[in-house]
Design a protein that fits this description.
Layout: H1 3-7, H2 16-21, H3 24-41, H4 43-46, H5 83-119, H6 121-136, H7 139-149, H8 154-181, H9 184-191, H10 196-232, H11 244-251, H12 260-287
Helix pairs in contact: 3-5, 3-12, 5-6, 5-8, 5-10, 6-8, 7-8, 8-10, 10-11, 10-12, 11-12
Length: 295
């Protein structure tokens, strides 16, 4: 068996989708993700009310939020707005930030990891010392500082989260690239005069695709949780744009008397993060079992 063959991640039998659907946990994760994505995409048609409409009949005679009912499926918030409609629009916000921030983090982390791992030397040393420096800072604290410096918006929040989430990807890809760069089939390509871009594009990157997919999927759950945390702390997505985190932040004072205002958005956050974790674990085991236990 050649080095090139040995380096190729084993492929699961049959399609990846069939393999995922055969696993109860990953099937559950896929259902949750598809449900959330569907709700976000078709939000304008699924929302029974305008999510920012402060309805006169959305509060009790005492001015308190209304509990779940046939009229307001998940109840209303402290301003009389329909919670179900706000959660659906919040799914849009969380998924947009989650995918955008994680996409940037994956691109940045993979670029740094591949560059440092392939070239090594002083280039790799500088890049990985910078990565270690970034990893030394608590991610949440760094994100709060960055979010406080810049005016919060969807794009800024996504960029802030990406700036603190790329380091794990960089470390994983660096380790794998470093190992691949020392294999005999790479040395043969160098001896044959293949360009750096050809070696990276045709002989190294294909062996990293599975790792990037797996850790990219797992990273979305971290991104969703971090976005919700920042919004809850008031430095993430700002009202009136709803996100699951700022819905909890706005209604936390009513937790004792109207627990649905915190329970339902909290449940949405947990379900989406759990779903991406379950899917990422299943992808790891299906695409490349060698990655098991490395996240």
């Amino acid at each position: 068996m050649t080095d090139a063959t040995a380096a190729t991640p084993p492929r699961g039998q049959g399609s990846v989708l069939v393999a995922l659907l055969r696993r109860p946990r990953s099937a559950f994760g896929l259902i949750v993700i598809l449900t959330m994505v569907g709700a976000a995409v078709f939000a304008p048609w699924l929302m029974p009310y305008d999510p920012n409409d402060q309805m006169f009949d959305g509060l009790s005679l005492e001015g308190a939020p209304l509990p779940p009912s046939s009229e307001f499926w998940l109840g209303t918030d402290l301003l009389g707005r329909d919670l179900f409609s706000r959660l659906i629009l919040g799914a849009q916000t969380s998924l947009i930030i989650g995918v955008l921030a994680n996409g940037i983090a994956v691109l940045l982390g993979a670029t740094v990891g591949i560059t440092a791992g392939y070239f090594g030397g002083w280039i790799g040393g500088i890049l990985m010392r910078f990565t270690d420096l970034m990893m030394a800072f608590p991610a949440l604290l760094l994100a709060i500082v960055l979010a406080a410096i810049f005016k919060p918006s969807l794009l800024i929040v996504a960029m802030v989260i990406a700036m603190v989430n790329w380091v794990q990807m960089a470390r994983v890809i660096y380790t794998e690239t470093r190992s691949l760069a020392q294999r005999e089939f790479i040395e043969v390509q160098r001896a044959m005069g293949s360009s750096t871009f050809r070696i990276l594009g045709r002989h190294i990157l294909p062996h990293l695709v599975y790792s990037i997919i797996v850790f990219g999927t797992l990273g979305i759950s971290t991104t969703v949780l971090l976005e919700a945390t920042l919004s809850y702390l008031g430095v993430g997505v700002q009202p009136p744009t709803p996100s699951w985190g700022n819905i909890i932040y706005e209604n936390q004072t009513y937790f004792a008397n109207a627990p649905w205002l915190v329970f339902f958005p909290g449940l949405a956050i947990v379900l989406l993060a759990l779903a991406f974790n379950l899917l990422g674990d299943a992808l790891r085991d299906t695409l490349d079992p060698r990655l098991k236990g490395r996240h």
